[in-house]
Amino acid sequence: GVTDDLVTLVSSNQEIATVSPTTCQLSSSNTNRSCLITITGGLTTGNVQISATSTYTGHVYTITPVNVTVSNSPTPGALSFVDPAVPIYVSESSAAYLSLTGSSGVTNAVINFTSSNPKISVSPSSCTLSTTNNLCKINLSASGSATSTITATSVLNGAIATMQAQASTTPTVGTLTLVPQSVVIAAEAGSQSVPVTISLAKSAGVHNLWVSVSSTSDPSVASPGNITQNGASVGNCCLSSNSESSTCNFNAVGGGNAGTSNITWKAVANAVGSPTCPAINASPTSYSPVTLQATAATIEPVARTIKIVNNCSNTIYFGISGGAVGNIAASQSDCPPNSTYVAAKSTCFWNNPTPSNGYALAANGGSTSVSIPASNYNGQQWSGGVTGRTNCTESGLCQTGGCTESGPGYGGNTGLACAVSHGFDIPNSAAEFTLLNNANDAYDITLIGGIITPLSMQPSNVTTSSLNNPYQCGNAGSVTAQNGVFNGAAQTLYGANWTPVPTSYTSLNTGVTTPAEAYNYVSGTSFANTSCSTGAAGSYQPNSSACGAGLTCGYTYDAIFNPSPTYKYTCGTRIGWISAATIFAANESTTNVAPFGFNQAPNLGSSNPNGYTIGEWSQCTHPPFDSSYQPGSPDAKTCGGTNWVGIATPESAFQSSNATWQQEILPRITWIKQTCPTCYSYQYDDNSSSFTCQTPATSSNPANGANYIVTFCPK
Fold first, then answer.
1. Secondary structure of residue 333 in the 3-state scheme
2. What are the sequence ranges of the domains in the chain?
3. Which of 93, 303, 523, 623 is the most buried (most CB within 10 A)?
4. Region 36-54: what's the mean pLDDT?
């Protein structure tokens, strides 16, 4: 019954440590019972208290302060194995995970592993952990039946952790587990629960155990949805020990009625010669069934809060713009609540929320919040984006990120609030999100339009574990690595450096050289700035040495976006970096002579039989193009084909690829992905850039209530 308790958080000495956020909205609802705060060391050492004060008038809460010690020495934390005991099947290996918890400032802690029994070996014999990269995987193998104590020892401080390894020549059957064992969904047809994981746990030597739904007690309430494994849809759940196939995932899907439905999974008989799941040491009679209890309740959408924080050293004006609802409309009466009919586009658009503290965010910590009202249209609550703007006036004219639909210096907008249906002017970097009442929200950071203001986005009222999938409720655009487990193995999402370094590239197909300067976006105009171009119009080449101190050779706005673009390089103050996709989108005609070979169509006899131009490949428009992660996508129309080895960590590998895209587009976007591995670098970069999140539902109200923080210049 407690609602709207605004808790304020204060550090007793901000020179020693600061706390962020400084306010937290709490209530009795399951979605707002807690909030995550971050304590950051300051410029000096010492002891401080982080205190919290409740403003709720109905009760006096006693809140114990947190005592914080900030020192020049790292806090080493504690080592622990995730599982205290691990079985091993002789001739195969088993995985074990070691974690570092409670540390601060640890950067390169070397951990050595030893085995008390020479019959059981550990590989690798050491790993390196840090506060931000706090999970490592080891493989255990055995030459015969044996028992061993595996010891992990930190070189940093001598801390140890132990676990037991038991090797046998007989397979260890293990157990089937289900996490979670119960879910709550909306009593609406098609609503989805949080992901449910079926696992073959504590087993060794078992391969291809076929698990299937044996019964669903009430399909009118809930049934199992599609099964996925390693990020791809599969017809059957086929489980094996200690491999990327040790888990399957599914969602409970609402049938429309309220009530409870029990979904039971069991191991089933499977022929050894089965082409899809050939059973090895997998006897179904050895496993007890597992049951998911799915409760469907009437959904009551809740308001969402998005906090926007500016950690940049300069003032940032932010913009927020709602997306299309997705319906065909003829008037306002066809639009759901919190949306507006736009006659020119024959559809409804979500209204733009008004920030609580204006659009100008002061440097080094300025913040504001927007509230997304409770609304429900086919499960959707709101969709849209947030971007950072540069050099704005109070009239709403901005150098970048405005929503005039005309570009900087033009009218079409009154004030800093975007008009309904007006998106952000390119180039821009933006946080995008779709908020759903009865399923996972989707959110991401997109750099397809360029890199202007660094930003990140993460949930503020959902906690995660280093054993979870980091794409579930993780931090898109984070500067620190994020650890987690998916595809049956420990995975790391690399942190962003937010320092773009474009490189020159010469196409072997066309002979066109794209200089690094072609991605530079600078202030001024190509007519007034000092020229840094050589050659003739239509084939300009950059000469960075022509620019004085503090100036960059690149493209101004008019050089790209004017009705008659010059594509001339001039010296100006850097605004940011611009992408090839944006340069072509500004002028999709044969007059676009920017040095990318946009008008050429290479590889006509091989990977590009349809004759698509490089400009068309840069846009990846569907149709005709499809994602490389889409099963059945023909190679000739596949936009993509990279696993970002050493750069990013996709949830699953690409399933199709196209050589023309790999030769003409990939080399010209790699610098974007290197800048931010968890951000979109091209239109179908989903598997390493798309995040989802949903708060656990309650039987009283299954509505998703995840709140978010968008941070400019994340640190």
1. helix
2. 5-70, 78-168, 175-297, 304-462+695-712, 505-688
3. 523
4. 88
